[in-house]
Amino acid sequence: MWRRHSSKTQKQPLQVHCKNQTDLSAWRKGGRTDPEKSVQNNQSPGDQKNDSKQDSFEQALSYFEKVQDHVSLKKNSVLQKHLTTVESIALQRGLPPEGFDVLLNVALSGKLADTVNTRLLKSLIPASVVPETSVVSSVSWLCVGKCSGNIQLLFLRWLITIFDFIDHKEQLHALYGFFFSFLQDEKMCPYVCHLLYLLTRKESVKPFRIRRLLDLQAKMGMQSHLQALLSLYKLFCPELVTITLPGKMKTYFKNSDGPWKAAINTVRRRNQENSPVSQPLFLGTAQPQSRKRKWNTQLIIPASSTNKNNLKEDKEKNHVDLYSTNESFPVEQLQTFSQLLQNISHLEFPSQMGSVLTNPLLLHYMNCIKDESIYLRLYYWMGQTLQEECTWCTADNNEYEEEFKDFLETVYKTECFLQEGFSSCEEFLYKSLPLWDGLCCRSQILRLVSWIPLSSFSEMKSHLYDPLAQLFFTSSLYFKCSVLESLKQLLQNWLNWHIINLDSESDSQFHSLNTTLSGLVNVVAELIHFVGWISTVALRLEHNPTFLLYFILDFYETVCDMYLRYNLPLLIMPPAGVFYPALLSMDSVSLNQLCYIMYRYRTNLVAAKENELTKKKILQFKFSSQTYQEYNQYIIAMVGCLWTSSAFQKDVHPQGLHMDDELLKKTTVQEFKTSFNIVYHPAMMGYAVLFLQQAWPDDTTFNFSLIKGKKWNWYLEYLYAQGLKGLKVFIESSINRVSQASRSKAGNVQV
């Protein structure tokens, strides 16, 4: 291992604990080498070229290490040469860990002009990790005030960007108070807050720091970066932060990536492409993976990624007490569920929150512990990543669509595992849906829509319903069905959440709606009305296709059972633009679905009416008389069509089937009254033909009038045997029959 240290760092030699740490030979080749194959007898021309570049880089580091006095860039060709060398090497393959100490010291020491220092800081692109000792050494230069304010600001931005590349962070945590003192500088305050946000632990929260933040907020106003830090403090110590803070997650910090982020991604891809094998993560994982961008490089827990109590030496690694209660358990060694149970009280999450998404054990921990600080850190990381890497929001990200799909799929699976949506995903969807074309990452986006947390209707209408409706009406039939499926899943997730939290009056999401159950009822009602509206329009646009009707009715199978299955005091009937196309459908599946839905509506409405009559106290929620009236209108139409052959005379719905006899006679349709009963209905006629063939195999006239009396009952039994269970329960519950074949007498038509 090549080691170059100034006199300042010789007292603290760099200790690299990661087995996969980049060595000099690997760095020269733009990749990493297998220790068993590192001995080479002959050098290729490419290796010789790399050695030449390496020699130039060593000379540049040696030059910057020995710089004593202020040197002008314009009149010094040597300085220009070495500065260009550093920039070139950094952009091509990144800098090795040993180069940061020299370059940071010279950039922050004030020996060179700000122009040179700026270029040096912008070239600090890591090839693997950034040694913590180098960062701590460079921070000490901020104490003596040798560098200008702009350079200090640029250094902080760099430190935030490469935070996850720092190999250890214990000494950085010890400098928490030092960084906190820089909050008084208005220009540096946003970036200092950002850095403190990344460093904050529970023990970092002190009353004097809270008072200082409140004083700054009183002086500067409600700044987002101050709110972020106060929100994190309040999560750790709610008894110390008593002020009310905005509960809605938003973008707290400005983008600090500057010139480094794109360069880091480019260097990482180039280094992995040049490697003869698929390389593991630069931050020290032991498993190979495919070439991925920023988000996927953080989905595996890196070695030495926890914030404290990292292993000291390789020898000690062989004797780690996995169940010690005196120190934090190394999260990268968490392999089994039993280890999680044994160490759940002293497990510290990795600095790279993205690694949590693919680790079921850590997700179990999140479900069990419900540590709000963990969720806040995860939301912040995820929000930043989604905002910066969205392929249709950023012009230069189009080539990474497949990788972005993988990331969105991982986020969705995490939400399914935790059974709750992320507010950062909600913010991302609200911002990106107006710009979305409905094609890029379609499946992933619609799946994320199904996990949007409960919000007020005003927010959902402007940010979700309006942009989704524009895409819905102008897209293909398949897209319409996908949207309906997503909204059905959204409704089910809300209802499941309601069941789980029914007895939890202190649940934070209830408070976010300002009201408890009434807020949920209103939001769910608006979702159902929205789906009813877009379904009605879609059926007209697409001319009532069976495929679309299936997804619409599937949504209402959930709606019709909300009262009994989910204990939600709400029932909303489907609009006439959905009910009548289903009733007159040419497909028996749709008609059978509608029959089952109306049966469940009846069951729920009867239960609600009985509950109202038996409760002595006044109920907070009652179904309106309009709901009962609309149900009765629909049931009259259905019975008139399928059973009594009187739909055209008795249907009283404003958008129903009622027609005068004179108008019906002009259609020249014989026996028009029976056109939609269970024998002549277009969806049922196929069954009637098959029944006639079995009952009268010698009769080829297909005389449907033969199906009456006892044959009618046989025909019903035949239909039931064909799997039309929805039709069966509807007839048995909603139609009075006096027949020996009738299994039960099921009450009146009207509720």
TrEMBL record:
GO terms for biological process: CENP-A containing chromatin assembly; mitotic sister chromatid segregation. Keywords: Centromere, Chromosome, Nucleus. Residues 1-53 are annotated as: Disordered. It is found in: Chromosome, Centromere; Nucleus. Pfam families: CENP-I. GO terms for cellular component: inner kinetochore; nucleus. It comes from the Eukaryota. Residues 9-24, 38-47 have a biased composition (Polar residues). Belongs to the CENP-I/CTF3 family. This is CENPI protein. It comes from Corythaeola cristata (Great blue turaco). The lineage of its organism: Eukaryota, Metazoa, Chordata, Craniata, Vertebrata.
